[in-house]
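Team,

Forwarding the record for the chain on the shared tracking sheet. I've put the sequence and predicted structure together so nobody has to dig through attachments.
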Amino acid sequence: MFNVRTDLAMEVRELYKERTKQEVEGVSVDVEEMGNVNITRVDIMNDYGAQVMGKAKGKYITLECKALRRADADLKDEVSQTLAKELKKLVVIKENPKILIVGLGNWNITPDALGPKVVSKVFVTRHLFKMYNKEGDKDLAEVSAISPGVMGTTGLETSEIIRGIVEKSKPDMVIAVDALASRKMERVNTTIQISTSGISPGSGVGNKRMALDKESLGIPVVAIGVPTVVDAATLTSDTIEMVINEFSNEAIVGSQFYNMLGELKEQEKYNLIREILEPYGANLVVTPKEVDEVIVNMAQIIANGINIAVHPSIDLKDVNRYLN
């Protein structure tokens, strides 16, 4: 339905509401403010809602915190705890769960390295269970982790690699972490989306591969993603919008040019800019210059959230003291 590149369900819902002035039929939305974090829960409940949204049925939970780009230790801890709280609602509820963490992306490209960096910080325990021949533990879950790389370096579809691992290790669920794309610069590196519908590796840069979901793997898949990029058309559209807002206090208001720009809908501005840029190969994928530091921080936040959510007896004190 929409041509704007975004992986966030909340943004697709925003676009629909801006265009139609109503909510999507078959989609429920709940918004909550928890400390410094704004939480938007989008639940796509039927096939019609999925068709309109262009996303699979399931729950999409988005955590927003604009201060995350320059977060201090206390704020990172707060977001980790909020993430863990939301994630616990989606993790397989059973005694002694077996969980596979998958870090998607290319560790050689910083905006795409979120998944591999998260995997390097999660607390894996499967080898300990095997070493001591343990079937279960009241304090720890049986956790394994893999960063399978990308098809350009392995020659294999990521889903093929993960499917083989699932068949061999037989986890109860998969938690997949990947970089995403947003339609707004303000949400880049400040937003975390959790979804129950799985994920398509490479979707953040418009290179979708075979999906990792319950249908393809046979077990529940929870996806965690952070938008780390926008395309140039989106960035330019946002810039024009800011210029129009700035001009609202100037003498140019009321001029024919201003009125023309002001009457353009967001989708129309985006399409116009993209049509101008793409013939020159200029519709680039853009990321903020401080992305190196941000990816390290976001990886720590997500890893801490996962560690707290999946291991019954691990809390924030433990992850900060022993697991960093």
